[in-house]
Design a protein that fits this description.
By secondary structure, this protein is α+β, with helices and mostly antiparallel strands. It contains twelve helices and ten strands. It has two domains: about 170 residues, Sandwich (Jelly Rolls); about 110 residues, Orthogonal Bundle (Arc Repressor Mutant, subunit A), CATH 1.10.10.60. Helix content is about 45%, strand content about 20%. β2 and β3 form a beta hairpin. The relative contact order is 0.12.
Amino acid sequence: MIGERTEMAQTAKQMIMPVLGDPYLLDAQLEVPGLLVQIQHCRWPVLHDAKLQYSRDVLIQTLTPLPPHSMACLTPEGRPGCFVKVGDLVFAPANMSMYSRGGGGPQRCVSLSYDHGRLEHVAVRVDRWGRSQLELCLDIRCVPIQHAMNWLAHEALAPGFASPTLVESLGNLVSVQLSRVFAAVRTELPRPGTLPAWQLRRIESYIAESTGAPPSASELAAVCGLSRRHAGRMFKQTTGCTLHEYVEAVRFERAQRLLREQRLSIKEISHVLGFSGVSSFSGAFTRLAGLSPRRYRQDARRLAVVTAPRLRSH
């Protein structure tokens, strides 16, 4: 059995196609002093294996569903370590190697690059980051940042009045939110009155894996072996938001992803997310996004159009 597994692993390794250099092709961009917004696309080969490295700190958000089985590893060293699942929003610190692998298919993304020093309060001493910070870079879950990145994508494709001012403002918003995200995991030792990292991850995993009606505060407290009141107070002290606010943010993020994937109808999405009907889902989504689910899906479809995607020759 061990021999069979070894042979299968060697065969799979031989099938992986290396991708040399940056495979993305530029669709549109906006540049202001210190900031660069780009819309790019590529078509990943089946079972690709790539290494990317950026000269500036950069946030990358996918505008289309990720290729299947997307995994990545971020390391200051010259060789890959442990690969983890990649999310829709990734932060790549400057001059740090990011190794990725996964299935093939087209992908379109929006990136926001910062000049050296603009994110010093976030990325300072990244060479000393631990595993928690490096893994967090590959799956950043922050609704305000996702909103800002989507707005930047729209602006890059169709710049409007005072576009540089808008880009500058959104860039500042993202940098502040990013610093808050990393501040929460800067140390594994909990501050007095806050949740230990393992309890916070357990709550986050339970919420992420739940389907239908969102879990209640009592359910989430039970996951950590705490009372409802104690868990709520400690979660607020740890993250700055209530359990209810966090659950709604995750549900909203899931709604955005399902709408972008274009596979389920809006009625089916409202059912999957535990809403009583389409009208209640539409009302909740519109309050948070500023536009209806139908309009969001139409805009996402327009952003996801990839014209004749191909790999750049090297």
